[in-house]
Amino acid sequence: MKLITAIIQPDKLDDVREALIAAEITRITVSRCTGHGRAQGGVDTEELYRGQTVMPNLLPKVRLDIACNEAFVEITIAAILKAAKHGGGEVGDGKIFITPLEECIRIRTEERGGQAI
C-alpha cells in the first residue's frame, strides 16, 4: 500500500478530481493549504492583515491524499500528472509524493490492509 500526496494549484482541483474518477480512483481526501517552492509569488506585494501591512510569501494550494494498493499507484500518478499541469507545465504546478503506507484500518468494520482502502 502507498499514500500518494499531491500538492496542486487550486484551479486544477476539478480537473484532477475528474481525471481520478475517470481512472476509477474515487476515494480521496482534499485539504486547502498554503506554501511555496520555487514559485514564491506575492513576495513583492503588500497586503493588509488585521490593520498591519504584511508581505505574504505563501500561496494557496490544494493537498490531495490518496491511499491505494500497489496496482493503482501508477494509474493514480498518471491521472494527476495529466490533469494538474497548466499547458505544457509551469513553475508552481505542484508536486507528488509517494510514501509507504504501513497499515490502513476501516473504523466501521475493523478491516485492515488493502481491503480497508
Could you give a short description of this structure?
With 117 residues, this protein is α+β, with helices and mostly antiparallel strands. The chain has helices at 13-22, 73-84, and strands spanning 2-8, 29-35, 47-49, 52-54, 59-68, 94-100. The radius of gyration is 17 Å and the shape is globular.
Structure description:
By secondary structure, the protein is α+β, with helices and mostly antiparallel strands. The chain has one domain (2-116): Alpha-Beta Plaits (2-Layer Sandwich), CATH 3.30.70.120. Helices cover 19% and strands 32% of the residues. It has two helices and six strands; from the N terminus they run E-H-E-E-E-E-H-E. It has helices at residues 13-22, 73-84; strands spanning 2-8, 29-35, 47-49, 52-54, 59-68, 94-100. The strands form two sheets. The protein has a four-stranded antiparallel beta sheet, covered by helices on one side. The longest helix has 12 residues, at 73-84. It is globular and about 50 Å long. The termini are close together. 14% of the residues are buried. The mean pLDDT is 88.
Uncertain regions spanning at least 5 consecutive residues: none
Q: Return the string of H and E elements.
A: EHEEEEHE
Most strands sheet: 4 strands, antiparallel
Count of helix runs: 2
CATH topology: Alpha-Beta Plaits
Task: Summarize the amount of helix as a percent range.
Answer: 10-25%
Beta-strand residue fraction: 25-35%
Mean residue pLDDT: 88
